[in-house]
């Protein structure tokens, strides 16, 4: 069951490419509550990544605003917001060293210095993805694309964010690695119960059906309910209702 106040609420947010005179994200309303699992599909270039990066406050909004637990996100709160609202891209960047070195890296950053690396916890996360404890000793340069994505996911999940914004995290993976990543993310969600949520962008309709209880589509920067879903059940942009 979703909580009364959304974790994240977008109010008429807009992203523009002023250089080329294009609106990448039309004025969009969107709400994500605890326990919510949202899948977004749509053609390439439709604005899916633009939306996720806007929700993560990785790119500045050209209009509108975001609320976090009902409050507007002030500039000083952005580092804390990004800690809780985690964006995961398709192709992860790993540092040179072992898997464990990569998993320890976030704790060297100021925003995470109140936390401590927990090897037992990350071994459990690795196990959800079908990897044993020896996986942490592997060198990053030896990993396949699927294994590198699993490391990137564990690196974020160990920090216990409230929300995952997943930008086609399995698009370049083989089916086995994709399912392992799905299992890992689902275990994270189940462990946090209703306090956690995700938005998952995917080109794979079957995957979207698996990972999303709410199905949305995006075209030309407009977010709308999927054709098979009741329009009244999903927050949509006002433009899509016209």
UniProtKB/TrEMBL annotation:
<dbReference type="Pfam" id="PF00005">
    <property type="entry name" value="ABC_tran"/>
</dbReference>
<keyword id="KW-0067">ATP-binding</keyword>
<protein>
    <submittedName>
        <fullName>Putative iron export ATP-binding protein FetA</fullName>
        <ecNumber>3.6.3.-</ecNumber>
    </submittedName>
</protein>
<keyword id="KW-0378">Hydrolase</keyword>
<dbReference type="GO" id="GO:0016887">
    <property type="term" value="F:ATP hydrolysis activity"/>
</dbReference>
<keyword id="KW-1003">Cell membrane</keyword>
<dbReference type="InterPro" id="IPR003593">
    <property type="entry name" value="AAA+_ATPase"/>
</dbReference>
<keyword id="KW-0472">Membrane</keyword>
<dbReference type="InterPro" id="IPR027417">
    <property type="entry name" value="P-loop_NTPase"/>
</dbReference>
<feature type="domain" description="ABC transporter">
    <location>
        <begin position="8"/>
        <end position="240"/>
    </location>
</feature>
<dbReference type="GO" id="GO:0005524">
    <property type="term" value="F:ATP binding"/>
</dbReference>
<dbReference type="InterPro" id="IPR003439">
    <property type="entry name" value="ABC_transporter-like_ATP-bd"/>
</dbReference>
<keyword id="KW-0997">Cell inner membrane</keyword>
<keyword id="KW-0547">Nucleotide-binding</keyword>
